[in-house]
Amino acid sequence: MKLYPVKVLLLVAMTTTLLFAFSSATWQSKFLKVNADGSITYFPDEQGNTIPDFSRVGYHHGDKAIPDVKVVKTITAPTSGDSEKLIQQAIDEVAKLKPNSMGHRGAILLKKRTYKIPGVIKINASGIVLRGEKGTVFVASGKVKRNLIVVAGAGDVKEVNGTRVKIADDYVPVGAKSFKVKSAKAYQVGDDIIVYRPATTNWIADLKMDKIVPKSDTRQWDTQTYNFPFERKITKIEGNTIFIDNPIVMAMETQYGGGEVYKYTFAGRIKEVGIENLEIQSEYANDTDEEHGWVAVQFNKVENAWARNIVSKYFGYSCVSLERGAKKVTVIDSKCLDGKSQITGGRRYSFNNVGQQNLFMNLETTEGRHDYVTAAQVLGPNVFYNCKASKTHSDIGPHHRWTMGTLYDNVVTDGQINVQDRGNSGTGHGWAGVNQVFWNCRAKEITLQNPYVSGKNYAIGVIADKRINTKLGDRPDGEWEGQNKEGLQPSSLYLAQLNARKKLK
């Protein structure tokens, strides 16, 4: 038998102890497991629901890097006066260029200078990038409330006549990427479809959203407002089973009207637009002034677009706001600093999302209210990853009226992160969201409630005090796991899901 020196034995013992201590200090969720090969196993509940795969969000669903588009025009601000006409003329000229094979017309480089803009800069064509140098500053000048840079296409979703079919399954669970329809004959791989979840009176009644305690401006929920058209693409068809690119983020339930599918077009939606490397400031009269710049960069009716390296200062509402027609947009490496407005409702939504399949990543805010936030009836999946907020004046999370399928991953705040029944706040916010996941987040306090029906909310590995909001009476508790327990693995759910998906290719 071979004898080993005492030092070697001690080293082995110490190494074994350290490895054991490391392994015992880390843990995985009961809802999913990352396997040795990087794949993920999801553990369904009694109805088959799982935490959704959030990996297909942002620019080209994360399958392509944001490009460095070639500069086709360079401009420098005049030494005095405003620069609005100069910039808008350059955008309009580039809009007339023929796009290349990637759909890019070209980048407009704004040389290091201060550019005063008394009105609005508009981008209404695909393939245009507005890019600054280090030291390029836009200033929303004057005393007019408006959005400074507006990226927007035209039109809306249009149903293709004769393609609507019923979903045949009695229940399609959260996390599912396939389901049966009555007939798939009208469909083929690559079709853009709407997965439609209708509202019904019994669903609203079971949520008790027809009995919100009234005040003068309270609106009870209704079946006209709460129909949900999720945009998806068909990836495979087997018989009458359709497979889709992004998961179901709200269960399709026969008892609440089931679901339907139809093809759609969105002819006016633009794509491949980027706003890059800009400091954007607003002039203001005082800390509560509201007659000045409101949103620094707004996207609507656009897909496969991006905003990166944007720093906004002194705006009343947002650094970047993605409206309902914004899809597959990445907002990355940006900051919203020192908002100027009254500190009350409808102000300081630092990074705001109303669209679907969008990614917000590596962001910072100060003096915001709802720093990383979704509005009403927001259709997931959407992700906020690696975001920080300080000097906050309100909470992070779904703000009102049933947002579905959002991941808050490594979000850190000195304030609150909440998903709850907001009752008659505002004009009757009610249940703020469902299938919301707080993963490895840090906050002063977290409120987490499950709605009465149609889904759950999760706080996994959060470092925060549990806030019990009894203002409206008892509500079902959310799904808590590992509260104030360090060592959650994977540390980022979004990155683990993205890695797992790319390994499958």
Automatic annotation (TrEMBL):
<protein>
    <recommendedName>
        <fullName>Pectate lyase</fullName>
    </recommendedName>
</protein>
<dbReference type="InterPro" id="IPR011050">
    <property type="entry name" value="Pectin_lyase_fold/virulence"/>
</dbReference>
<feature type="signal peptide">
    <location>
        <begin position="1"/>
        <end position="21"/>
    </location>
</feature>
<keyword id="KW-0732">Signal</keyword>
